Amino acid sequence: MATSKVEGSSSLRHAFGGVLSVFILLLIGVVAFSIRLFSVIKYESVIHEFDPYFNYRVTQFLSKNGIYDFWNWFDDRTWYPLGRVIGGTVYPGLTLTAGTMWKLANSLNIPLSVETVCVFTAPIFSAFAAWATYLLTKEVKGPGAGITAAAILAMVPSYISRSVAGSYDNEAVAIFALIFTFYLYIKTLNTGSLFYATLNSLAYFYMVCSWGGYTFIINLIPMHVLLCIVTGRYSSRLYIAYAPLVVLGTLLAALVPVVGFNAVMTSEHFGSFLVFIIIHVVALVYYIKGILTPRLFKVATTLVLTVGIAVCAVVVAILVALVASSPTKGWSGRSLSLLDPTYASKYIPIIASVSEHQPPTWPSYFMDINVLAFLVPAGIVACFLPLSDASSFAVLYLVTSVYFSGVMVRLMLVLAPAACIMSGIALSEAFGVLTRSMKFHITKYFECSHTEAPAKLGESTSTESSAPLENMTKSDTTEKPEVARKEKVARRKQKKEKELTENAHVKPVSAKKEKRPLVLPLEASIVSVFLLIVLGGLYVLHCVWAAAEAYSAPSIVLTSHSHDGLHVFDDFREAYAWLRHNTEVDDKVASWWDYGYQTTAMANRTVIVDNNTWNNTHIATVGTAMSSPEKAAWEIFNSLDVKYVLVVFGGLVGYPSDDINKFLWMVRIGGGVFPHIKEADYLKDGQYRVDAQATHTMLNCLMYKLSYYRFVETDGKGFDRVRRYEIGKKHFKLTHFEEVFTTHHWMVRIYKLKPQKNRIRGKSRKSKLGSKSTSSKSGGMTHKNPWN
Amino acid sequence: MTTKATRPNKKPIYFPVPPVSFVSSLFPSAINKIKRQNEIESDLISVQLLHQNKIREQIRCAIEMAKSTNDAQLLIQSLRKAYAATPTNLKIIDLYVVYAVATALIQVGYMAIVGSFPFNSFLSGVLSCVGTAVLAVCLRIQVNKDNKEFKDLPPERAFADFILCNLVLHLVIMNFLG
């Protein structure tokens, strides 16, 4: 009776714990969703930045025309006159997901517009990602660590930065797919079930559809398999987890048009094939070892080694010859720039020029993962006690993602889940020890009136074992209790549940550890838990601040606070709307490639180059045109059928990322293809300046003229608020372009190409026909015709 | 069986050298003839020694090779015996694996003759064979009664997983076949 009662109460506690975990996870999902809504509240429900506009346009097309047209879509409104095969060059995961959600909502008669669905896709999938982190960490360490990790991931600023409401980019769904794929891999590894292996391959397929970063998965998992084999942890579950994934995964990856045959021909995938062969060899070796006697096995190994090494050498020689014959050794440019960080700046200036591709600074680590930066090493230690396949995978994932995040700031995003998992593990382990100590001391205090001697014994053992644990727990902090607490206190204010959670988690642990308490002194535990609460509070505070202030700017609408209130700069949309309403549908607009996606999406006009940057020569053509004098630029633009030129200028209001600041990149990229553009011509004494000391080439190039045309009329002196000096050439006229629109704050300026003159005025025509000797005479009498 | 070193019957003849040289200066021809005889004898002895060493080594090699071929034969025999002891259902699965791999090799050979266009058909053909072989190996692992890790997995469940995974594989293959 008593045992069944105990069992009943413990099963009731387990059931209650289960319900509570579900409730906590629901709350974590709500937090993850709502912390990303700051930009919607502060600005409006609008798509941010540049890349999301392309995805939005593609989703619009998909929702209007259906999937077959989308799959076969050839877009003739970008990269004029080349066009772009959208069906074959876009990662379809994000757009298909949003399109499906839109279709589902509309079929249930919930009238959401495509824009709304696109804006809110990222927060929804970040809630899913938090739940996937719970599942993954539960497989690695246990449900307590899972909930902690999920709560941390819901708020980590690095992930928020790429998944705010409105940031409709590939990473919004890709990070969820990444974590979910890893979860299924670890689940297969732990259970050895082929069902989960199938699901793993399907999740990998979703990841390949979503993001180019899928190569991280297909290289990390083979690395982990190799690690397991080398450290002697080979088991048949490892084979079941890996071999079907390679075959099915390669096939599924080849299904996606963007990847196609790259899945079997590029070096990014060779690692997986190599480990596939290795695991088969190892499996065979273990099988033969199992059925032979040891002596015969030794003989077999010598026989096989002599033959095998010869064959291997031949195969490796062939492979090396094949790979070395291609100049990039089979790797794509982006992967090479990850492996060799200096590659891009030497060979592909476009990749080097993107600000997201620069290495991060040290403070950005603290900004993006905050408290986790010093919880991660504690998590690594906790993973080694005890080491299992899953925890070795977590450590490997963390180490590789730390390396890649050091190469490119955009990849801090891949580090975020790893850091959250590690911190969750560290915190839950530390929390376990601390609450166990507290409970032990409290129960001992209540029982000490009955038994004196065993209590003393317990104390001596606790003081012995507290010393080695000091290091681990002093540096650890727990977050799960007070994050969960904070949420509950903020929303429900039920203290009783706190104690019950503690009991639910501590009870089975303390029952096991009756022999060796491994507890800390009571005062230290209480103080530590209090410090954890404070630390967790600081983390939450930082995350909310980062989400609200740093990462919620939509980049298309700018605000600034000044003494006379809030100024809103909506110039971009003003310019695109003007283009949409005042130009013909077939007019071509030339601008720098940053604005291509926005122009096609919002202004609905054909552009010459856009953010896809797949054709370096075309971009170099535009760059050359921007760097040339007016006549040459007109020639280039006329040959591309361009009607309008768009430049972004921040000198009047102090907007720092305008075209004049980007101009040197235009020169470099243009100079890379057209050698008559030399960067040194635009620099005075190695310095880039546009004031009176600027070079002649700089003061006469198209970019300067289009940016500063009539700028002197604003304040009489032509003071540039970004560069902080007066401009060099103030009064000049444009001969080949005419200004058609300048926005309210002069941030976007649109010019039209003047049509070529129909007839040339009399005298200069005669002088053209005549000899050069008469030119000097006639030069003084007539205007110099700029069209000659 | 080892050969013992046999001593030459003849004992080497040692002449005291200085008197020979001294005497040889006095009586050159006779002394030289004796010297030459001694040299020939020592040469003969060294040649005999060498020959014996070579024979010794050859015999040693032959024994080792005999041992290794003996071992190899022993190895193959024991492998065959151990494999014959596996249950029939596992042998059926192994046969299926061999058949799938053989089909894949035939396809690769055909591609080598005919050329690889269209490449997607070749890929899907080879990968379907390799894939079903891998899945069959996984099934064998899960059904094998000697495997401690899977002792509480009913073989019907293992087979159902195998079928499901094959379904997904072949759906993808059908799509990719072109």
Structural overview:
The complex is a heterodimer of chains A (788) and B (178). With 788 residues, chain A is mainly α. Chain A has a 5-stranded mixed beta sheet with strand order 6-5-7-13-12, with helices on both faces. A two-stranded antiparallel sheet of chain A has the order 1-2. A two-stranded antiparallel sheet of chain A has the order 3-4. Chain B is mainly α and 178 residues long. Chain B is built from 5 helices and no strands. In chain B, α3 packs antiparallel against α4 and α4 packs antiparallel against α5. At the A-B interface, α11, α13, α15 and α16 of A face α2, α4 and α5 of B.
The parts of chain A where pLDDT drops under 50 for at least 5 residues are 453-513, 770-781
**Average pLDDT for all residues of chain B:** 79
General shape of chain B: elongated
Strand content of chain B: under 5%
Structural class of chain A: mainly alpha
* Oligomerization status of the protein chains: heterodimer
The interface involving the most residues is between: A-B, 34 and 39 residues
Distance between the termini of chain B: 69 Å
Quote the average pLDDT of chain A.
83
The shape of chain A is globular
What is the helical fraction of chain A, as a range of percent? 55-70%
Pathway (chain B): Protein modification; protein glycosylation
InterPro entries (chain B): DAD/Ost2 (IPR003038)
Subcellular location (chain B): Endoplasmic reticulum membrane
Organism (chain B): Rhynchospora pubera
